[in-house]
Amino acid sequence: xxxxxxxxxxxxxxxxxxxxxxxxxxxxxxxxxxxxxxxxxxxxxxxxxxxxxxxxxxxxxxxxxxxxxxxxxxxxxxxxxxxxxxxxxxxxxxxxxxxxxxxxxxxxxxxxxxxxxxxxxxxxxxxxxxxxxxxxxxxxxxxxxxxxxxxxxxxxxxxxxxxxxxxxxxxxxxxxxxxxxxxxxxxxxxxxxxxxxxxxxxxxxxxxxxxxxxxxxxxxxxxxxxxxxxxxxxxxxxxxxxxxxxxxxxxxxxxxxxxxxxxxxxxxxxxxxxxxxxxxxxxxxxxxxxxxxxxxxxxxxxxxxxxxxxxxxxxxxxxxxxxxxxxxxxxxxxxxxxxxxxxxxxxxxxxxxxxxxxxx
Length: 360
Prior knowledge:
Layout: H1 2-22, E1 31-33, E2 39-43, E3 48-54, E4 61-66, E5 69-72, E6 76-79, E7 85-95, E8 98-109, E9 118-123, E10 150-151, E11 158-168, E12 176-179, E13 190-195, E14 209-211, E15 222-230, E16 239-243, E17 248-251, E18 270-277, E19 307-309, E20 314-315, E21 326-334, E22 349-350, E23 352-355, H2 356-359
Protein name: Cell surface protein
Domain Bacteroidetes PKD-like: 29-94
InterPro entries: Ig-like_fold, PKD_3, PKD_dom_sf
């Protein structure tokens, strides 16, 4: 009887050991993701699709998280970012024997906007449309991300704007378009300057380069030209000016615009603007209403439908050509000091600025 009991216990032990072996946990999961790299790039609105395949066919619990927040427990995963930024996607596959883990860093960029998206500075010169709807501190917002309308006033008035991406210098063709309100027989040309974010800090603290247009170097063209404007005693008075060549003049008031022509938000009683002066060779002579015909190329508010400009025309302060791979910032500045009689002072208007490569 004792021998029989011993045999029974031995058999039971063998059976128990066999059951234990049968019930041993599956091995640690071996998983392969559809994306092998540790990093990837995407844009806002782009759907990222990932898939986890368990290569050793064991049962696992899937888990996906984004920046520490659980998102899915299935083998397949999709994610459509709605904001630019950096996203950490973590995948884990877990069973009783262990865990497989893989991390993916996704850098999401905003979809580039064709039109300028950032106002850096708006300093108009005095003029008949200053302190009105197209010439006040809020006016530049109208051309951010779209077409609108901004008046720069008389000579030297300027606006500086930024793109949300670098506009590439495309070989052999124009890169930027500046919209204005020029007509075939009436233009108010503005000088255009560009800047590349060479130090990559996102700020307009590198070098401004003028885009040389058709009038560069001609008689009447002057670089490093300056004008100082003086606040008038009353809103009814003309604005006086004096340049760095000893010339003086006025921005003449007219009956159609009775407000002060001196920018009200500028607290100083005088301010000086500096830039390049274009020749007045396109201005008709005589009294009454004078005309201002378009130049051949290279200026803002110069031709109907907008002016296409080539970054390849950039020049440095000595007039030497500069090779830029692209530009991040643009400045547009009224280029001629002229009284056009009944229609007032010549003042460049900007109705939009865009990257041509994103419009075509």
